[in-house]
């Protein structure tokens, strides 16, 4: 997503206003406009840095270390790991992803911050409950990760969050609903 799309999603979540209405400019009343203005100010004041132009693992390492030296980073989220490249050359994409995964693991240890790296699954994972074998392009992602969480659709009503790996605890599943208009996960109530 582009920077503006991410901000729109954040505003939508905070205000419960349909993100499509914001995108299309079809906000209906002054109350909604005020909610958007208030949420925009709150989000602008948050200590969040969004970078959509960092493309290599080396750039991420440099950027993260710079932010750490300025005490401006406590968490990093990468969306998504298969879009990253390595400036070094490798014989296969799997080796390249393995190197990126290893470097992210070392970076999290070096900076003492959590790193959440989103990952694309193999195409056949859509047909059944995903497993760690479905992690695309590298088994090293499974080895290097402390936690692996799959998000998948059980049926049109239910989303499953599956904690498939937890280095320091139990695994399991939880059922939630996804509200697409505001990009919210909502607790499932029976």
User: Could you tell me the mean pLDDT?
Assistant: 89
Helix content: 25-40%
Q: Order of strands side by side in the largest beta sheet?
A: 3-4-5-6
Uncertain ranges = none
The class by helix and strand makeup works out as alpha+beta
Overall number of domains:
3
Work out the number of β strands: 6
Instruction: Report the oligomer.
Output: single chain
Shape: globular
Task: Describe the largest sheet.
Answer: 4 strands, antiparallel
What is the radius of gyration? Answer: 19 Å
What do these coordinates show?
The strands form two sheets. Strands 3-4-5-6 form a four-stranded antiparallel β-sheet, with no helix packed on it. The protein contains six helices and six strands; from the N terminus they run ααααβαβαββββ. 38% of the residues lie in helices and 17% in strands. It is globular, with a radius of gyration of 19 Å. The chain has three domains: 1-46; 49-145, no CATH class; 147-190, no CATH class.
Summarize, please:
The protein has helices spanning 3-15, 19-24, 30-45, 57-69, 93-111, 140-144, and strands at 76-78, 115-117, 147-153, 159-166, 172-179, 184-187. By secondary structure, the protein is an alpha+beta fold.
């Amino acid at each position: 997503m582009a920077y503006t799309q991410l901000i729109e999603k954040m505003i939508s979540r905070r205000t419960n206003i349909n993100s499509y209405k914001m995108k299309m400019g079809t906000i209906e009343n002054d109350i909604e406009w005020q909610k958007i203005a208030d949420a925009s100010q709150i989000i602008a004041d948050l200590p969040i840095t969004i970078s959509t132009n960092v493309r290599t693992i080396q750039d991420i390492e440099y950027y993260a270390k710079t932010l750490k030296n300025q005490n401006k980073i406590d968490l990093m989220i990468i969306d998504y790991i298969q879009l990253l490249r390595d400036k070094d050359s490798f014989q296969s994409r799997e080796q390249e992803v393995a190197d990126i995964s290893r470097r992210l693991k070392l970076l999290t240890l070096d900076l003492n911050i959590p790193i959440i790296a989103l990952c694309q699954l193999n195409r056949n994972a859509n047909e059944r409950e995903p497993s760690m074998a479905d992690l695309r392009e590298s088994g090293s992602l499974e080895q290097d990760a402390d936690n692996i969480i799959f998000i998948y659709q059980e049926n049109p009503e239910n989303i499953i969050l599956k904690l498939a790996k937890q280095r320091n605890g139990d695994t399991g599943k939880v059922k939630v609903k996804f509200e697409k208009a505001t990009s919210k996960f909502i607790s499932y109530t029976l």
